[in-house]
Design a protein that fits this description.
Length: 127
């Protein structure tokens, strides 16, 4: 009976060893593919950062344009600035947007550095 248990344990260990070898090959293939994709991912991440910055700039320009159209045309800029009351609705709208944001979701800035850090840590682990 003891011989049968030992044989079963040896077969299970051989199976685990074969599975570990198969997983190791797949992980190595994945890491090789990631290394090949690194330049494309880095470029994509930088493009996303640039597009987010452009969208912020466009939104700011649109907001400035909207404020300029709301100002009376006859009053000089400094005089119209003194007469415009501070809008508390802007602060309330920002607070409402913050509350509406999904729980657990955070805004990540500097995605390019995050992606580069990932590849750097992988490279350090391989060495």
């Amino acid at each position: 009976m003891a011989m049968l248990i030992d044989a079963v344990i040896l077969l299970m260990l051989a199976g685990v060893l074969c599975y570990a070898i198969m997983v190791d090959r797949r992980v190595r293939l994945l890491m090789e593919t990631l290394r090949e994709l690194q330049p494309m991912i880095t470029a994509y991440s930088a493009a996303v950062d640039r597009s987010e910055e452009t969208v912020r700039d466009l939104a700011g320009a649109a907001r400035d344009l909207g404020e300029a159209e709301a100002r009376p045309a006859k009053a000089p800029l400094s005089a119209s600035r003194d007469k415009i009351p501070a809008r508390s609705g802007d602060k309330a709208a920002r607070a409402a947007r913050a509350r509406a944001q999904a729980a657990g979701v955070t805004r990540v800035t500097g995605k390019t550095e995050l992606v580069q850090g990932f590849f750097d840590s992988v490279r350090e682990r391989d060495q």
